[in-house]
């Protein structure tokens, strides 16, 4: 057993380098080690629920004036609210709203507007059809454990994040039509957003403008430990036009129009971004990793220690013209890195260490 562990450790060191993260990068790169993916919160763990919602619940009549916040007379587990917007409105700063299993549907977005508020699915599969916004006032807001989409004709982006230090973890997010799934920092700069251990897939159906994760105006975002797949209408991670100091690491990125792109517009550029320790495969007709710029090239962008495979442009690495980013050493496969390659089911070849980069994968459904 010790010999097996030693062999695995050696393989990981060869893939990631001696410090666990910077191997294969530019010699002068001073970057922190790749962080491990934190384990998911167990389905039986009590998230500390302050308010509750259930498909069989009842929303209060909204009142005008001061003195009582909407939902203050409902929301305990015995008398839950019925909709996600009502639950979100009911939360005071620092409170957690928990959704019991079942299907929820709403039209206008559910908005978290107070600092430290959380929406959490508990006790099984919680399916939400309707947009959720983490607004700029909701610093530190969290979204966990939801199976999220949005079929409303006006608000069809499932998740918009404007809140600094927001956390989106352990969710399944899909598009009900061709759309971007997660839009970060569109109306204001969002700082320190973390997107971890989610399955985000099949959002962009056609064209090239609908992405799985769209980092539009961000600083210090972390995209870690996700499965980002099956998006023919856009990129898995699109950094444009002004995403800075992003860390994209330990993600399984498969079967998208494009994998990860560093990009800018006019005099704005995405700078200081690191893409490393990911498995990126089968991007087409674009590349696994690429850059796109107008007047100003990005600075300090680097991609290294990734496991790459493509049957499209620049096969087998699938790396586009190196412009506005640096390319370190990556492990380029000569054939598919997958033993099992099906939607919601992946098994990665174990012979070269690619599986160690993204193991364990998050569960395909929240609450699994």
Q: Summary?
A:
The protein has 368 residues and is mainly beta. The protein is 7% helix and 35% strand.
Which class best fits the helix and strand makeup? mainly beta
Radius of gyration: 21 Å
Span from first to last CA?
30 Å
Oligomer: single chain
Give the number of DSSP strands: 31
Percent of residues in helices: under 10%
Q: Shape from CA axes?
A: globular
Low-confidence stretches: 1-30
**Overall pLDDT score:** 89
Percentage of β-strand residues = 25-35%
Number of domains: 2
Largest sheet, in brief, is: 18 strands, mixed
Count of DSSP H/I helices: 3
Give keywords:
disordered N terminus, 3 helices, mainly beta, 7% helix, 2 domains, globular, 368 residues, 18-stranded mixed beta sheet
What does this entry look like structurally?
The chain folds into two domains: 101 residues, no CATH class; 191 residues. Helices cover 7% and strands 35% of the residues. The chain contains three helices and 31 strands. The strands form three sheets. The chain has an 18-stranded mixed sheet that branches. The protein has an eleven-stranded parallel sheet with strand order 1-2-5-8-11-15-18-20-23-26-28, covered by helices on one side. Strands 30-31 form a two-stranded antiparallel ribbon. Strand 1, helix 2 and strand 2 form a beta-alpha-beta unit. The radius of gyration is 21 Å and the shape is globular.
């Amino acid at each position: 057993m010790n010999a097996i562990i030693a062999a695995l450790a050696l393989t990981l060191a060869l893939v990631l380098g001696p410090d666990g993260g910077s191997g294969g990068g530019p010699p002068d790169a001073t970057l922190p080690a790749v962080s491990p993916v934190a384990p998911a919160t167990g389905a039986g763990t009590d998230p500390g629920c302050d308010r509750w919602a259930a498909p069989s619940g009842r929303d209060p009549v909204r009142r005008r004036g001061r003195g009582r916040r909407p939902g203050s007379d409902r929301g305990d587990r015995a008398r839950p609210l019925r909709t996600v917007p009502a639950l979100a409105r009911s939360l005071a700063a620092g409170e957690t709203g928990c959704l019991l299993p079942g299907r929820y549907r709403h039209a206008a977005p559910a908005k978290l507007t107070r600092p430290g508020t959380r929406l959490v699915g508990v006790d099984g599969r919680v399916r939400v059809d309707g947009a959720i916004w983490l607004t700029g006032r909701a610093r530190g807001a969290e979204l966990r454990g939801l199976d999220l989409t949005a079929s409303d004709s006006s608000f069809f982006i499932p998740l918009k994040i404007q809140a600094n230090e927001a956390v989106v973890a352990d969710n399944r997010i899909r598009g009900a039509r061709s759309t971007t799934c997660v839009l970060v920092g569109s109306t204001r700069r969002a700082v320190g957003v973390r997107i971890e251990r989610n399955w985000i897939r099949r959002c962009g159906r056609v064209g090239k403008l609908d992405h799985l994760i769209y980092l539009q105006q961000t600083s210090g975002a972390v995209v870690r430990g996700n499965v980002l797949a099956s998006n023919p209408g856009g990129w898995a991670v699109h950094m444009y036009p002004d995403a800075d100091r992003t860390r994209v690491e330990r993600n399984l990125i498969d079967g998208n129009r494009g994998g990860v792109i560093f990009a800018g517009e006019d005099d704005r550029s995405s700078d200081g971004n690191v893409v490393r320790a990911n498995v990126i495969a089968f991007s087409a007709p674009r590349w696994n990793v690429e850059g796109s710029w107008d007047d100003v090239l990005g600075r300090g962008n680097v991609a290294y220690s990734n496991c790459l495979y493509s049957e499209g442009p620049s096969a087998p690495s699938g790396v586009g013209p190196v412009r506005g980013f640096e390319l370190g050493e990556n492990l380029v496969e000569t054939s598919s890195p997958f033993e099992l390659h099906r939607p919601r089911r992946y098994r990665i070849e174990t012979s070269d260490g690619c599986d160690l980069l993204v193991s364990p994968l998050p569960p395909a459904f929240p609450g699994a």
